[in-house]
User: Fold this.
Amino acid sequence: MPATTPSREIVLPENASGRLDSLLARLLPKVSRRELKAAFRAGKVRLDGRACRGSASASPGATVEISGLQEAPQAPTRSVSRQVYVVHADEHVVVVEKPANIPAYPLTYGEGGSVSEAVLDLFPDMNGVGDQRNAPGLCHRLDVETSGLLLFARSSFAFEEIRRQFQEKKVEKIYIAAVFGLLRGEGVIDVPLGRRSAKRMVAGPPETLRQWPALTRWRALRRADNRSLVELNLQTGVTHQARVHLAFLGHPVLGDEKYGGPPAERLGLHASRLGFIHPVTKRSLSLHSPRDESVSGMVPARAD
Assistant:
């Protein structure tokens, strides 16, 4: 049976005009016109907070929210398009939610089944954007095991503007993590990281290893069953930063056996919120992942 997706939010581009249904059909190439018409008829399309018809005028900068779209079951192919949920899309940037255990980009040249491949399938105009031929438009990365928000640029100008924001540490990156042990309060982990091997990092590396500054702010959200749910604000973007810093704190991520975490059904780490300045409109965007239950549910919602 088809599955109903959470709501999608789309900010209309600055040159938006004409009928709303026609513009949405262009912005959402993988959604059929029949499906869009059904959503309008059912009152599941809201324009700036109000239900609207397909004939409504598309206004620049307006926010459209669509709920109840149907996703067909995933076909038995390498494509992951049906697993990648579009959280935000306009003519300049796309933010999607990456499933756990699917790579953000091909790990070897020509490999299929990555989120980048799925996004390019949804937005083919992105081809050639950025400096990674096998991951067009991809502005940052997540570990294979980590789920959550990924940001893509749809033009070279947008890509360079967003990359500058990452370099200047102006992009807000908020994660939630399910960790071992009972953690209370909040704090800051300001410990450099080094590469122990090709696939493993270490906190507070010896002077013989190259070091990268790494700073993580954390806040405990709840505790139960010797587990804690923690919110993380990554001020830097070093490989495995959240995982290594939490292990350094004595509270490794559930499912992260590489860094001392206990076995679990999945890695308990999810990129839940992403904040940045839109490269063209200059509006501040703060986007939240609608599907973080697989991590937050690893810690029961009751006080320990």
Remarks:
- Residues 277 and 284 are 5 Å apart (CA to CA).
- The chain has a mean pLDDT of 87.
